Amino acid sequence: MTHVPRYRFAPSPTGFFHVGGARTALYNWALALRTGGTFVLRIEDTDESRNSPEWTQGIIDALSWLGIDSSHPQFEGPYFQSQNAELHVAAAHKLFEQGNAYWCDLSAEQIQARAKETGKQGYDGYSRDRGLTGGPGQVLRFRVPTGSTVVHDLVRGEVEFANETIEDFVLLRSNGSPMFLLANVVDDIEMKVSNVVRAEEHLPNTPKQQMLWDALGHTPPQWAHVPVLVNEQRKKLSKRRDKVALEQYREEGILPDAMVNYLMTLGWAPAGDTEIVPWSSMVEEFRLEDVNHSPAFFDIKKLASFNGDYIRALSLQDFVSASLPVLAATDAWPSSRFSAEVYEKIAPLVQTRVVTMSEVPVMVDFLFLEDPAIDQAAWDKTMAAEFAADVLKHCMSEFASCEWNHDALKTILESWTEAKELKLGKTQAPIRVAMTGRTVGPPLFESIEILGRDETIRRLQKSLSRLG
Ligand code: GLU
């Protein structure tokens, strides 16, 4: 029988979905797809004080946004760790019966006091041979064997841990509930997981978990620990300091394909001279052996630039469809004033100019606001020009009867500008502020064409009156 690999993703539903978790999920998903294996989703929901069902739904939604679709035939789950509690406890008892675990009644204070006495850190194995049989106030500890534990890790190579540096860790708390390390291993065994690909922060747990696999009579999985994500200051990404929630990037208009592509490159690079490659080739090429050890910089600017590339690569129709939800959600204008037909006219000009979808409303709001707010700094800068009133007046009178297309509009301003020996870049500015309230935006003459003759003239007039 050929061996079909079983990968898994085992998030804890304790908050927003972290971009690091998203990268781990994608690595597992890509590998499962390429190898014809399975991707198991297991929700590690045993920390009751921090879990909430809404976070679980958030994980499932986020995965689906990334294209990890729970209805795909290679997707299995979700399973819930909390439903396996009996198995976890049974495994702990088995370890006790086999002599791999023992009961201990020392309190945290007593352990500390002993550590002080012996000058050693942590728990010293005091109860190993006391023959306790369990009962109130007792925890079950794993009897760490002598020698060393070698973890074969596809990313990090062989990592050797001296067992004497690992204390006899707790399997069951004194209230009988299983510890995370044990639950995680028992679930992996139960779910026949063959490959554990997870964040590097779990590497210190791995020798303990490998001992548990061995003691429970199973061959440990193929381990792979992928590098941590760090911020610009090379500090580990943290909820408090950094923007880590996938949901937030989604809301800001990062496209899922761009996010997926960017996340895949955090610690790995596709062959060739561009990192922007379709998902299918990443699935084809991705190998854990090629993943870097060093921390990966989660660079928001680079993500935005990936996103810009992805936006520009969309067909116009896809771009319009991708922007419609953002336009529907914005409060930049009263929704009754929005027109999809007008938006479609300006969309090609917007598509080449935004890096995230959230920038779209600001670019087009002048079309859907009755009177766009005029930015004071923009006004002061452009209307101070001595030609400002003249250029507004000239355009107002010429635009009233000219042919209505951007070329004709541009020719009018160009001729005037030449005659006055000025520069178009300068003379456009007051017109743009009159139309949009800002100094930057989509190309001016196309914008004016879309805005329409009457509205254009009304806005020019309004600015002229304001100029006094
Ligand atoms: N539930 C753990 C976490 O969210 C994952 C542990 C593992 O992947 O083995 O960090």
Q: What is the gist of this entry?
A:
With 468 residues, the protein is mainly alpha-helical.
Structural class: mainly alpha
Question: How much β-strand is present in the residues?
Answer: 5-15%
Bound molecules: glutamic acid
Main sheet: strands, sense, barrel: 3 strands, parallel
The fold-level CATH name of the domain at 376-467 is Arc Repressor Mutant, subunit A
For the biggest β-sheet, the strand order reads: 1-2-3
CA gyration radius, whole angstroms: 31 Å
Mean pLDDT: 96
Report, as a whole number of angstroms, the end-to-end distance.
Answer: 87 Å
Low-confidence stretches: none
Per CATH, which architecture of the domain at 376-467? Orthogonal Bundle
Share of residues in helices: 40-55%
Report the principal-axis shape. Answer: elongated
CATH structural class of the domain at 376-467: Mainly Alpha
Helical stretch tally: 19
